[in-house]
UniProtKB/TrEMBL annotation:
Signal peptide: none
Class of the enzyme per the UniProt entry, highest EC level: transferase
Protein name: Ribosomal RNA large subunit methyltransferase J
Function text: Specifically methylates the adenine in position 2030 of 23S rRNA.
Upper classification of the organism: Bacteria, Pseudomonadati, Pseudomonadota, Gammaproteobacteria, Oceanospirillales
Residue stretches in coiled coil: none
Annotated GO CC locations: cytosol
Annotated active site: 164
InterPro entries: DNA_methylase_N6_adenine_CS, RlmJ, SAM-dependent_MTases_sf
């Protein structure tokens, strides 16, 4: 039984890093005419109202997307991200926030495909409603790790797999590594983007080391607006990108510095971008 609902967390600081990385990777794939496939293994509800009772209860957008209100954004990716969100809103303050499937549907071309998977029945229903007019989408309601294995290689032989688990079960961490290993064996050239939370610094480092021992060519991107703890709440989050575009690291350095300033909570935040070996 899944209890995590992304409607409580949409538009938080972690969504910013994840969705900026997603936009960058999709635009990279858009540079070539050849069609590709986007597979979202943990798709969520697709679209969120930041004034809903769920979102209002946690008010996480206040330390996330709402920090961008009235700011002079410099990095072109931040400008693009804000423009994309403003297409969905009629007021300058963001009320409606796109989840990863909606962002992808706005950026993919008519020849590309979206495979969207969400296990939670309520969120799956919402996702279905959000995507109902998009004929490029195929929806699934399966276990993400099983579905990933069955879906690769993607028939286009070009694609992005976003893996964004809620990690509400401890086993999810081991499952991510196992599923990625199996998928990478079948589809070694795909781009894989995996989101992770930083809750306990020690556990995060241990898990990333394990993953890097099993999988090659990973770029780690991390942003922590809060100081490390040994396991009390999320102090930051990161993305692991397997087979990253060679431009990603250099393009993201100034973006991370800007993000760090925009999302600062008291003490200066910390960011990191590094190729893992
Ligand atoms: C962080 S949310 C996804 C947010 C979404 N990717 C976005 O960026 O808008 C994680 C989602 O994974 C779903 N989920 C958790 N475990 C799953 C599993 N084993 N298989 C499929 N979905 C799962 C949860 O119901 C939740 O909606």
């Amino acid at each position: 039984m899944l209890s995590y609902r992304h409607s409580y967390h949409a538009g938080n600081f972690a969504d910013l890093l994840k969705h900026l990385t997603l936009i960058y990777l999709l635009e990279y794939l858009n540079k070539k005419d050849k069609p590709y496939c986007y597979l979202d293994t943990h798709a969520g509800a697709g679209f969120y109202d930041l004034k809903s009772t769920h979102a209002s209860k946690t008010a996480e957008a206040e330390e996330g997307i709402w920090r961008l209100n009235d700011q002079q954004l410099k990095h072109p990716l931040l400008v693009q991200y804000r423009e994309l969100i403003s297409q969905l809103n009629t007021t300058p303050t963001t009320r409606y926030y796109p989840g990863s499937p909606k962002i992808a549907s706005l950026l993919l071309r008519s020849t590309d495909r979206l495979l969207l998977n969400e296990l939670h029945s309520k969120d799956h229903e919402s996702l279905k409603a959000v995507m109902q007019n998009d004929r490029r989408c195929k929806l699934f309601q399966e276990d993400a790790f099983t579905l990933l294995k069955a879906s690769v290689p993607l028939k286009e032989r070009r694609g992005l797999i976003l893996m964004d688990p809620s990690y509400e079960k401890k086993e999810d961490y081991a499952q991510v590594i196992k599923a990625l290993e199996a998928a990478h064996k079948r589809f070694a050239t795909g781009i894989y983007a995996i989101w992770y939370p930083v809750i306990s610094r020690q556990d995060t480092e241990r898990w990333i080391n394990q993953l890097a021992q099993k999988l090659p060519n990973i770029l780690r991107i991390e942003h922590c607006p809060l100081p490390d703890t040994s396991g009390f709440g999320m102090s930051g989050s990161g993305m692991l990108v397997i087979n990253p575009p060679y431009t990603l690291q250099d393009d993201f350095k100034p973006l991370l510095s800007e993000l760090e300033e925009l999302l600062r909570q008291g003490t200066p935040g910390k960011t990191k971008i590094q190729q893992l070996t």
